[in-house]
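Reply to dn_fold:

You asked what the input looked like. This is it:
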Amino acid sequence: MLTKTPLLEAINSANFTTAEALIRNGERIPDGLQSYNLTQLYETLISKKGFAVLKALAADGQIVTDVYELEKFDNSVFKPLIKRLPLDDESFAFLREFVGNAQNINDEVDGKTLLAYAFESQAEPAVIRALIDAGCRTDFKNNAEDNLICQVVRINLMPEPKQLAYVEMLIQEGVDVNETNVVKQTALHIAVERDKRHLIDVLLQHGAQPNEPDKSGNTAFFYALAHKFDRVVYEKLSGHTPADFSLLNKDGQTPLSEFLRMMRGGANDIALLEQLLADGADLDDATPYYSKPRSGWDWIIEKPTEVLQMALRKTGVDVNHPDNDGNTLLHKVCAINPNYEQNKAREIYKKAKMLLDAGADPTLTNTQDKKAMDLAAGDNLKAKTVEILLAAEKK
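and this is what came back:
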């Protein structure tokens, strides 16, 4: 049960003049006060501007203001200072003074500094500003070597204007947007990975490099294309710096090859691929897949017919151009295994028909002396495809 003392009653009733007098006369906060009750006491003093009482308690050693002594910020006076402080000049002046007089304010508590804790707690930007002015340093890195910009970008469920204000403030304080963490990610990598579209422009404006690889060799473009299939983010990045589609990651893949491998072929994917082709992506470029080179076209032919249709229209490719094995696009389409699925067989038929309409020559043979029809003839589900190939040969 909470023991009522003259000091506690004076504070709870906001009679701060009396509370100050009691402290001067030796009155103390009762020992063993539950952390919940102590937090309520701090919140009352802070929200009602009992700043003189707080300073008196700190001067008397009744409030722990040495950060090194804390086990958690949540159980300290700093939590309500960050969360409950009135947002006016008088309160900010008190905060600067109080924190400025505290000890070891840049020490870590539970893996974070006071300033990092304030960001994590989503303090108002003006509170953050006061903490920095009081001497809280902005060069802190956590155990993952994320700098404060990276830490802020990782915070979820935060109002976008506040998160943007945090990033802008840290940039103004000299925190490097291109500083990398333990896995060589920059803030831009993290922003793309975590769908923080609202932060991308400001990072780019202050020098973020979208072609910079992380430890796995993946760039922000790679994240945007192969992980997110996000046209909006891609256009933000490419509007600042053209994508280098030839950059290989540690697995030997490029942003384009991985996008093509993973894309499902819906309208959004097709629109994004069309933009990539307009920006210089080359479907003839090949990367290893199970130790064999695989070009963009090799992926395209396995996607829905609409993907191939767009690629043919956009690139104007010579449909009869053979690869190193002598296979044309028609050969490759006819070699696809429908795997006992009628829908896949129908897609093969539609693609073969489209290629024939585009000028594909069904009489061409590959290095094994096989025509496209020979590759289709081995599967009964491809019988309709064989029919149109035979008809085309007779023309």
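The chain has a mean pLDDT of 97.
Hope that clears it up.
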